[in-house]
Amino acid sequence: MRDILNQLQHGAIMCWVRFRLLEVLENSGTQEAFWSLTQTLTRSMMADGVEDHLGVSSPKVTPGEAVGDELKDDTPGVSGEVMLVNTDSFEECHHELDTQFSGGEDGPVPNSPIRKVQQEQILTQENELVGGMGKVAVTEDEDKTDSEDRLQELVPSAAYVEEENLDEEYLQNPEWIRKEKHVFILSESGKPIYTRYGKEDRLVTLFGLMQALVSFVADSDDVIRCIVAGDHKFVFLVKSPLILVAVSHSVASIAQLLMQLTYVQNQIVSVLTASALTRMFEKRRNYDFRHLLGGTDRLLDNLLNMLDSHPSFLLGAIQCLPLATSVRDTITQTIIQYCSKIKNLVFGLIICQNQLISLVRMKKFLLHPADLHLLFNLVNATESLKTSENWMPICLPKFDPNGYLYGHVSYLADDCEACLLLLSRLRRHHCLEGINTAIRTSFYTVKAIGAPELRHFLYKSKTTAQFTCPEYTAPYHTEAEQRRLFGLYQLLHHRVHSVSRPLKMVYMVMDTQTLLGWVTREFELYAALEPLVTKHNAIIYVNKLLRWIKSDENKLFILNSPTF
Amino acid sequence: MASRKKILLKVIILGDSGVGKTSLMNQFVNKKFSNQYKATIGADFLTKEVMVDDRLVTMQIWDTAGQERFQSLGVAFYRGADCCVLCYDVTSPNSFKSLDSWRDEFLIQASPRDPDHFPFVVLGNKIDLENRAVSTKRAQQWCHSKNEVPYFETSAKEAINVELAFQTIARNALAQESEVELYNEFPDQIKLTNDNKAKQDACSC
Questions:
Q1: If one looks up domain B7-200 in CATH, what number appears?
Q2: Chain A with chain B: Cβ pairs closer than 8 A
Q3: What are residue B141's phi and psi, to 5 degrees?
Q4: Could you tell me which residues come within 8 angstroms of residue B144 by beta carbon, excluding any fewer than 6 positions away?
Q5: Closest CB from A117, A205, A216 relative to B74
Q6: B3 or A527: whose pLDDT is higher?
Q7: Could you tell me which residues come within 8 angstroms of residue A404 by beta carbon, excluding any fewer than 6 positions away?
């Protein structure tokens, strides 16, 4: 313990942050350099008047105000009819910040009826916060040699390692240590539940240490949020009765890591329900949750892989399978026709390869993208669903964290990847084989836009909580390049959502590409262009892109919101 | 994640400073002993797998600091323990007298559900030394008065009774574990959509 604490302090900087995540970033050496760089870039670009070219009326518009009057009317993907709860990408994080510090409550979607009904059951958690900022910043310059060194410092060394220990093998294993992102889940009493890499019962002392850190900070009426040591971030999410920890040296920001941990937490709630978690823990603080969560690691593994590569989580939005309106309407009508008689059917949806084909909902109920992501994950991670129709209890944490919906999952046909989910309160057998019609995957590449120097983009329509992006093409055809691009998107996303200094527009010229991030009230756009593209051309391409999306919006997005 | 068969026990070792908590743990886990005294700061963690009957049990041992100035880990630290090991030094009457306050402190901080039957084990350490000051009888009486707490006289230096003591610790904690394992909870039924009135204000837009 003391060794590890010492080691941590050695790693240049250690911070406990209460109020603002960014405090940490400002203190961190490498990040600092990067931010100042990007900020200078951004500022100079803004000074150059990129906004004017893009039709932004004034660079000093207050946040939330409509930008770009000419575009406003024909902003692609805007719809008054909404089927998904529209979200800010960082809704989760902001909520996290709020609740952890106000000693507040779970229950971000305020108007869910279920939540009102069952309010008394909602978990109480998080220490009430009183007192001043608990922040420690220690800077040491001597030992910033290379990342290898810093890695070693994070590992208990010297006397600690001499002891024969089960954890030793992992903590000594460079391959294990170097993993880009570790995720650990433990109970509040320090009992291991899950580790992304390795076996959790071989890391028992490490879990103990994590609990000790949480407990130590909690003792001064504070909550540990993160530790930054060199290029490593240790992000903590304390959600009684669980403690979730991410240890990352990827580009993902602290806020993004926190959001990812919230997804992981939601995944566990989705399996057990929040009330069951709390009840078990109230009954027995030493409860070993692995008993109840047996088999869940498959879902968690898959979720974490998706979080690292799928933009939908980052954007808090859903990708729709591009489909001609007539085809989609036929499918939707078929669902309505067959399912409208089923009592208590809350949602009926058809999904395919993590994309939404059609969603029909009970009037007055909206589906939250985060819940839909969990459904995607469930279908994605469960091979066995392909072989038969399945009934299973599913808790959708945003819909109601304390109860199960009955989910019916079936694939439409053996040769079709489309998958039907029906979520209802009651069990009822029914079949929908007839719907195996015109669903054909119709992806598009960025070539379709006709903007030669545009390489890839993500476009999120905020009102509908949906996004679209082209398939990866060269130079992003390899997995490594795709990961790199995803990291760049994370960066852009972080810049425009920065808590202390949110930006409406970022234009970054880099060695290997030019990045553009643009956020208005209606949409978020993140684009990667050729590194040598001129600003003038970039603007032309982006406008062209928006026009293209507009012309295809009915195909790319679901703009109506059918109900039973 | 582990199958049902794997069991993890959180064991907390408490006692005055210098009674040999770390040494006992080291003897049990690493089969090593050092005469040098190094105060534990905060806590140390060690793991050991033991077989109890035919079950493989992982013991997560939390060695704590006896010195007050190093006890800064917070209330939450003790929570969810499966067993608590109280240690004293048979040559130090004061360390024996402290057992009461250590036990009380633990029960207050960890607040186990059934304090009267929470598995404690008492270890009287350093029986290899000659200047013994607490008699076996006195210690046994104390243990008897606390609801028959198992008592062992150990020597971390000579490895006397250490293995046996920890075996008992694991066994007793396990007995508690399996007792509660019997009732399995069935999760919630959803009661949402029945409530028509609630439905009205469901739209969160």
A1: 3.40.50.300
A2: 195
A3: -60, -45
A4: none
A5: A216
A6: A527
A7: A273, A393, A394, A395, B187, B188, B189, B190
Question: Percent of chain A having pLDDT more than 90?
Answer: 32
Cβ neighbors of A437 (< 8 A, separation 6 or more) are: A327, A330, A331
CA–CA separation, A245 vs A224, rounded Å? 11
Q: Hey, is the C-beta of B182 within 8 angstroms of any chain A C-beta?
A: no
Give me the domains of chain A, ranges plus CATH numbers: 2-26+127-251 (3.30.450), 48-89+445-557 (3.30.450), 323-435 (3.30.450.30)
Interface contact flag, A110 B203, Cβ < 8 Å:
no
Per-residue DSSP letter, A316: T
Nearest CA of chain B to the CA of A210: how many Å?
Answer: 10
- Compare CB distances from A189 to B79, B195, B204 and report the shortest one's residue: B79
Taking CA A556 as the corner, what is the angle to CA A552 and CA A558, rounded to the nearest 5 degrees?
A: 115
* Cβ–Cβ under 8 Å, residues B155 and B127: yes
Question: Considering only CA atoms, which of A248, A273, A262 is closest in space to residue A185?
Answer: A262
Q: Torsion-angle region of residue A398: left (phi > 0), alpha (psi -120 to 50) or beta?
A: alpha
Q: pLDDT tens across A110-157, in order?
A: 444 333 323 333 333 333 322 333 332 333 333 333 444 433 333 333
CB-CB neighbors (< 8 A) of B73 in chain A: 212, 215-216, 219
* Chain A residues within 8 A of B47 when measuring between CB atoms: 165-167, 204-205
Contacts of A87 in chain B (CB under 8 A): none
Between A425 and A303, residue with greater pLDDT? A303
The pLDDT, as a whole number, for residue B69 is: 62
Q: List pLDDT tens digits, range A309-366.
A: 899 999 999 998 887 787 788 888 878 887 777 777 888 888 877 888 889 888 888 8
Q: State pTM to two decimals.
A: 0.75
Query: What is the spatial distance between Cα B25 and Cα B9, in angstroms, rounded to a whole number?
Result: 15
Mean pLDDT of B106-111: 88
Average pLDDT over residues A235-251: 94
Residue B156 C-alpha, separation from nearest chain A C-alpha, in angstroms: 16
Higher pLDDT, A89 or B201: A89
Q: Mark yes or no for CB contact A404/B188 under 8 Å.
A: yes
The distance from CA A487 to its chain's CA centroid, rounded to whole angstroms, is: 13
What are the structure tokens assigned to A281, written together?
Answer: 């823990």
The pLDDT value given to residue A95: 53
The pLDDT of A164-169, averaged and rounded, is 61
Q: What is the mean pLDDT of chain A?
A: 72
Unique residue bearing structure tokens 């220690």: A138
List the beta strands (DSSP E) in A90-200.
181-187, 192-195
CB atoms within 10 A of CB A550: 17
